[in-house]
Amino acid sequence: TELEPFLREALALIVEMTGARQGYLEVYDEDDPDSHRWSIASGLPEDEVQGVLAAISRGIIAEALATGKTIVTPSVLLDERFRERASVITGPNQAVLCTPLGDDGTRGVLYLQGRASAGLFPEPDRRNAEIFARHVGALATRLLKEHRRLTAEDPTRSLRESLRLQGVIGRSKALATALSQVALVAPLDVTVLLTGDAGTGKSLLARVIHDNGPRKGQPFVEVSCGTLPDNLVQSELFGHKRGAFTDAHSDKLGRVAVAEGGTLFLDEIGVLSQSAQTALLQLLQSKQYSPLGDESARPLQANVRVIAATNIDLKRAVAERQFREDLYYRLQVLPIRVPSLAERREDIPELAAFLCDEACRRDGLPVLSLSRNAVRAITAASWPGNVRELAHSVEAAAIRAAAEGAAQIECRHVFPDIIATDENEASLTFQEATRRFQRDLLMGVLDDTRWNIVDTARRLDLTRSHIYNLIRAFGFHRHD
To answer: What predicted TM-score, i.e. pTM, was given to this entire model?
Structure first.
């Protein structure tokens, strides 16, 4: 689980397997070029490591990285490829085996030097070293990614220390901006308006505001205004007396009364009818209301905090006379915009993993994880329905993977309609379908980024060199 101990134990293993006198393992974080290089030496006292590294054959390492091929030589001083290089001249005259790390040969290098007997490292040692280098490169990449996640600047860290943020997943700047506004309004007993696209998590932030405010521990009552018929909105909010309308066979408490002392969350407030808007405005202004059919002259007093949410542009609705201007300004005391998933794309891998765990637990499925390719595809995909759409897709993928008995959730589980959309595609082999999916995914992202390789690599969570390799493999050509 930690990179340095892993590299140290891995290097000791391959040195023992090959019988090398000295070993050196160097790992690059190509996804984060500003980070330092990770290096481990074996068979060298700590106080001599830097001196030996200065004299070690950088020429051989550079050659292995440039060609992506393993270099084996019985004596670097006698090998005409390297003997003129300064690093070789100052280095020891010993056999060398040097091979690049990772599938693409860009993740680092394994350098083995010296043998008990003269001559080349034998072919079995070469094969073992190459297998070792391929797997160590993949494992080191995974640990580097986790290291970046743990050590990277987290703009939400201070907010997580001061707020209760159960269920809020992500570390992006966009999320931190919204949470900083939550921290501002939560301790105040004022009306809050949450805006943003559908499915972004406005109800979750409403709960966070409640849990971090003066009414925490009191009722939190959510009303989805979009699901209520116009003729029942006021009855649901304020209750009714027996006989108030045809089906009113008994008195009923409204949501305002149920939320007494706590928070009333009105979701999709932009769809309220004009009459319901008028009644809500009265509640916000006077903190008083009357149940339907109540003929008494005394209204009831309401002790509730109101948090409203909408994915509608209320300012435009006011201009089009579909929403009351006075109610709009009454709600717009401290508005908070919840960012879309596209604005916090870097949160998607962590969010998808959380949603996967939740789905498996909730549906009683075996514990499943998302494969690296699935995570890359999910991160690169467009999610117009935001977190809600992502959650449904991940849950459906977990159900498909569990039914299949798969060890991991793969791309085909998340995007079954892309993998096979007609009879011809449905008959493809798994390898053909996977290749077609990768081709279409890469071309889509290249088009979206206008062939900006840096942005494409970031969105797909791949190295730039891997992107170039895929472009060549698929025979893509840019057409301006």
So the answer is: 0.61
pLDDT tens by residue, 294-332: 777 688 899 999 999 999 999 999 999 999 999 999 998
Segment among 138-142, 230-234, 342-346 with least mean pLDDT:
230-234
Q: Of 184, 188, 225, 173, which is closest to residue 203 (Cα–Cα)?
A: 225
Residue 392 has pLDDT above 90, yes or no: yes
Cα–Cα–Cα angle for 233, 234, 238, rounded to 5 degrees: 125
Lookup: tokens for 284: 């916000």
- Band the pLDDT of 230: cuts 50, 70, 90: confident
Token pair of 13 as six digits: 């293993």
Looking only at the bridges linking them, the beta strands covering 192-195 and 305-310 are parallel
275, 322 contact by CB (below 8 A)? no
**110 and 101 in contact (C-beta within 8 Å)?**
yes
- At residue 450 the predicted structure's pLDDT band, cuts being 50, 70 and 90, is confident
Among the listed residues 467, 464, 459, the one whose alpha carbon sits nearest the alpha carbon of residue 381: 459
Strand order in 220-224's β-sheet? 220-224, 263-267, 305-310, 192-195, 334-337
Q: Which of 62, 57, 140, 59 is nearest to 103 (CA)?
A: 140
Please give the Cα distance from 362 to 88 (Å, whole number). Answer: 61
Between 111 and 212, whose confidence is greater?
Answer: 212
With 0-12 CB in 10 A as exposed, 13-18 as middle and 19+ as buried, what is 54?
exposed
Distance (Å, whole) CA 295 – CA 312: 36
Q: Which of the pair, 131 or 450, is modelled with greater confidence?
A: 131
The structure tokens 């793969």 sit at: 410
- Measuring CA to CA, which residue among 10, 12, 30 is closest to residue 136? 10
Instruction: Measure CA 476 to chain center.
Output: 28
Which tens digit of pLDDT belongs to each residue from 13-64? 999 999 898 888 888 876 655 455 677 888 766 665 665 555 555 567 777 8
CA dist 331 and 342 (Å) reads 27
